[in-house]
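cron nightly-structures :: item 1 of 1
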Amino acid sequence: MASGAGQSDAVRLEGQGAIITGGAAGLGLAYARRFLEEGARVLIADIADPAAAAGELERSREVQAVRTDVASHSPSKPWSGPR
């Protein structure tokens, strides 16, 4: 993807959000790292505990982590919104 005229590669995704499934390790973690480098906010979703991965990325304001099984068709507990 080419950058716009005068636009730094480091901010191509500024203001955008990304959900990275399987982001706790390996290729998913590499994608999360790259999206952050390009200015995106990232949500890491993984069946393994993604907290360590989020900590490793060291941009806590722009990284959130949630432990979930995206392959499950039925939610274990429906989201009821903020409390």
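cron nightly-structures :: done
The CA atoms of residues 42 and 63 lie 5 Å apart.
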